[in-house]
Predict the 3D structure of the following.
Amino acid sequence: MSGPISLTHNKYYSWCRDNLFSSWINGIITILSIYFIYEVSSFILNWTIFEADFVTNFRGERIIDRTFCSKNIEPGQHGACWAIIIVRFHQFIYGFYPVEEAWRVNLVYGLLPFALVGIFFDNLPFRKYFIYFTFLFPFIGYFLLYGGIGLDAVGTSKWGGLLVTLFLGVTGILLAFPLSIILALGRRSKMPVIKTICVIFIEFIRGVPLITLLFTANVMLPLFLPEGVRPDNLLRALVGVTLFQSAYMAEAIRGGLQAIPKGQLEAAQSLGLTYWQSTRKIILPQALKISIPPIVNTCIGLFKDTSLVLIIGLFDLLGVGRAAVADIDWAKLHYEVYVFISLIFFIFCFLMSRYSLYLEKKLKTDNSN
Amino acid sequence: MKQGIITLEHVNKWFGDFHVLKDINLSVSKKERIVVCGPSGSGKSTMIRCINRLEEHQEGKIVVDGIELTGNLKNIDSVRKEVGMVFQQFNLFPHLSVKENITLAPIWVKKMPKAEAEELAMRQLEIVKIPEQANKYPGQLSGGQQQRVAIARSLAMNPNIMLFDEPTSALDPEMIKEVLDVMVDLAEGGMTMIVVTHEMGFAKTVADRMVFMDEGKIVEEASPDKFFNNPESDRTKLFLSQILHQ
């Protein structure tokens, strides 16, 4: 808005008048909308916070099973009973990981951001050392989580909850990324054999549901491996998830590659750069930048799809939640469990989405929108 | 035909069934400035793109500075180090700053230390008269400035030969002069140049020889004086009358 602001009308007043009450119809819609927002948000806030139980019920008793929940004592008068989350918190976050060893998982959670910042922010001070750490991290993480020298071994069958979700999501995405770049470049290769292999791989993986892939990885993978080598369930799921993600990401990247004008490669070649130099310094940086939205789209999709590992017997966040709901002591607290799980998924997906916006903004080098 | 720094002998090229270059013979000697003109689709761009192997010719022989262009990748690399190219669409790298555009090839192809490459880039930007734009991105520059950066980027590889593929065709009229000025400087500095252009004023100023192409053939080759004042072929006369009276 331009023009002088009169003394009696401050800018909030005139903004409201111009945008919310510019006509009778607009005014009525505004009032109805405000009423609607008030009703919905007061219901949500009351249910989740003000009328909800956390550790104790309305009588002040400690909640140890569902019969203590206020809403089960006085039906229809109370909000959520979060005690189910609090009591089973360990399972949600660590699965069946031994309680006394949970610090190892915490340490991995705590180190994870340090392993990722180096990849995510290129203007970071001492970035080089963060990147070194990124390459070390899989080994540190594996050692801490799985155990080994000096640490008790904790088999992956005991992993669960957020740990499995994050393990599959983060590792799957990070492993799929380089693979997908190779697939996308291979699909555009002039060498027929490489091109055919990449096309078949991508089309096959994209053509089957993730569930099928997970089943296949679970059942078929041992058949291809030598006798006696039995990769554990989680690893099989990781293979399935990584292949799935790499095919989708490859197509997202191929879209970006196709958007780069031919002149870019010609200019690079005429300067004497080799194919790999041109690809690495000229084509990929631009193609990946264009592909950020679809890449993040597939990442968010995959992160949520990791919950499908439930069907091959792994207890990810959703699996643990379903187990909680099925527990006789805590039955019929679906809402609490699913709201909590949704919230955790939402936080991670939202972070990915925001990061992609940050990246797009940072990489913008012209004055266009 | 005397042996030149660039020789094309009986070069033929097809795009599918379309015969785009028909028996091209051309010899360019060192420090010679050739201007190639002709109607669109006559094969002039294709011809110069064959000289640094952005296009592959199917028949005939192309030799650049003693190196024959064949499928041999090593030869192609050596030729590309000798030959700089400037494109109609500039083809600057939009994700790199002006300075990075120029230092990229010296650092990666010539393995030049970064500081030295940056010094070189600044010298090249002085030559094309825009050192103050060094830290901007191509998207922030005008067309004329972008094309001058593209020239600086090519020059940074210290080529013996420069190819220009309609360098001013994508520019607004008021920016053409600043680019042509840089090219005139370059010509006066003794660079071997092949320029595809319709800028006849430029051709008259700098060209040692005019080459006129039509339908994939070289129709006429002559000194600018003869070419403009006394062309032999009727096709050339028609072309000149159209281009000079627009």
Remarks:
- Residues 154-363 of chain A form a domain with the MetI-like fold fold (CATH 1.10.3720.10).
- The CA atoms of residues 84 and 154 of chain A lie 26 Å apart.
- Chain A has two domains: 1-50, 154-363.
